[in-house]
Amino acid sequence: MRTKNLGKLLEKGAPPLSFGGFLRSARTNKDLSQTDMAQFLKISKSTLCDIEKGRQHVSIELAVKIAKKCGLSEALAAECSIRDSFRKAGLKMSIEVKLIA
Hints:
By secondary structure, this protein is mainly α. The protein is 61% helix and 0% strand. The protein has 6 helices and no strands.
């Protein structure tokens, strides 16, 4: 997975990425079907579809757990999840998450 590409996409002024978009990008970059990704994550295909389409919110904890399992950026996953919460609450806010050592 090319997480650097996702970071560059965000830097170029693209619309803020949702967690579902982040997960869909990761899945397609790995050339996995929704069925294969759902089996890998041990969730149903319909749940994965709902996450990717933004119909199901993913907590920060779950977003980080999924990112870790997929070998993706945990900070970007958390940031996307928090942004989704802001959008859902109708808040016009922004956030940047960084890993600290």
